[in-house]
Design goal:
With 241 residues, this protein is of the alpha/beta class. It has a single domain, classed as P-loop containing nucleotide triphosphate hydrolases (Rossmann fold, 3-Layer(aba) Sandwich). Helix content is 54%, strand content 13%. It contains eleven helices and five strands; from the N terminus they run ααβαβααβααβαααβα. The protein has helices spanning 12-29, 33-38, 53-62, 79-82, 88-91, 113-117, 122-141, 155-167, 177-184, 186-200, 215-240, and strands spanning 40-47, 69-73, 100-104, 144-152, 207-211. It has a five-stranded parallel sheet with strand order 2-3-1-4-5, with helices on both faces. It is globular, with a radius of gyration of 18 Å.
């Protein structure tokens, strides 16, 4: 992840201006007849613990009609889900044409937390790269625009945020013993993330790496990227018609 410049910042005035600009643009794009009639949108949010996934998701959701999108938070699989093929619990939440699904964590858990924590065999997580690429290509072939974000913060910034959550009563629910345990495996997770990006960033579903030490910068980069990807897709639709 060394190619990321985590020092990037966006001051409050520019943040508010840029955020409003791209939220307005996103609202237009998801109501565009070329999107509503032929496409759906899947947004995948992954990242370091405390990297600001929830805050970015909220800013994206604010731009859309609540009837048009759903947010799917992914935690440990239930008994029912463990009894099914791995990707089943994600397939069932994919949006129909004209709709948006936002995954707060995703099928990448297999090659991240399940790999690092030993919750699946090496054969399982190695096989998952091909399974995931096939899954995303099938979505794209059906008209789904797949946009994937990895939000990265530095180890020092993560520690600062962990301590802030621990010391702030209304934020304390956000910090758990598991977060501290995961932090001890920082290097293992970095290796897993690098492998994930290398093996699953494809032409149809590329990863966008987001410098998230500054929340303002990260939120604008996320929503700007969504707008740019949708604009490119709709421009192609215009050429076909």
């Amino acid at each position: 992840m060394s190619e990321l410049d985590l020092t990037q910042r966006l001051d409050k005035k520019d943040y508010e201006k840029e955020l409003a600009r791209y939220q307005g643009r996103l609202a237009e794009l998801v109501r565009d007849p070329r999107f509503v009639g032929k496409h759906s949108l899947v947004l995948v949010f992954e990242g370091s613990d405390a990297a600001g996934k929830g805050g970015s998701i909220r800013r994206v959701g604010t731009a859309m009609d609540a009837r048009q999108y759903q947010i799917v938070p992914i935690a440990a699989p239930t008994e029912e889900e463990r009894a099914q093929p791995y990707l089943w619990r994600f397939w069932r939440h994919l949006p129909r044409t004209g709709r948006v699904t936002i995954f707060d964590r995703s099928w990448y858990g297999r090659v991240l937390v399940e790999r690092v924590e030993g919750f699946c065999s090496e054969a399982d997580w190695l096989r998952a790269y091909a399974e995931i690429n096939d899954f995303e290509h099938q979505m794209a072939a059906a008209g789904t625009v797949v946009i994937k974000f990895w939000l990265q913060i530095s180890a020092d910034e993560q520690l600062r945020r962990f301590k802030e959550r621990q010391d702030t009563e209304f934020k304390r629910f956000k910090i758990t013993d598991e977060d501290w345990r995961n932090r001890e495996k920082w290097d293992d997770y970095v290796a897993a993330v690098c492998d994930m990006v290398d093996r699953t960033s494809t032409g149809l579903a590329p990863w966008t790496l987001v410098e998230a030490n500054d929340k303002n910068f990260a939120r604008v980069k996320v929503i700007k990227t969504i707008c740019q990807r949708l604009e490119a897709v709709l421009k192609d639709e215009g050429k076909k018609s």
